[in-house]
Request: fold
Amino acid sequence: MRGNISVNSIKGSANQSYRGEYMAKLNKFSVINDDEELKDSVLSVTKGGLHFNKDTVKLLGNPNYVQILLNEDSSKTAIMVCDKTDEGAIKFNKSIVDGKHRGRKPKDPEASARKAAKKELHSVSIKSSGISNTFGRLFDLSKSTVEYSMLGEPVSDNGDMKAIVYNLKRADKKTVKPRGRVPKAKA
Reply:
């Protein structure tokens, strides 16, 4: 009689043994948790438009619409949460159009809303000729490989994040790799 040993129990014990050795090698490591405190809001200005990092989206509460503000006298720009009907409102959350999620109509709207709430946030790019022209006057954006990045300063209203201000004078200029297809050199 063999007893109560199965193939799965043998595989399980071998796997636990391997995992124990593996984890022993990693005993001084710690898990990086993505839910840790937010870092910094970063605005990048390129020839193609404005790019806001994921922390900016989180700080603003993943709004559907924002306004881009500019104070040329103080050389500052800001991003501010707004409603769809406000002047200069720009769609910020690209997965939502008019309060509805893109794509097929979900069979269970409540389940769809819960799933969307758990969905990973991403950085956001705003591409607009008006915005590109405005920032093109303020920065040398003649080359597509130039990027200006700056840290933002959050502005809250009773603890509720409403805007982030960026000082254009503190922008760091850097050269980045060209994006998209690079034309071949003529021979």
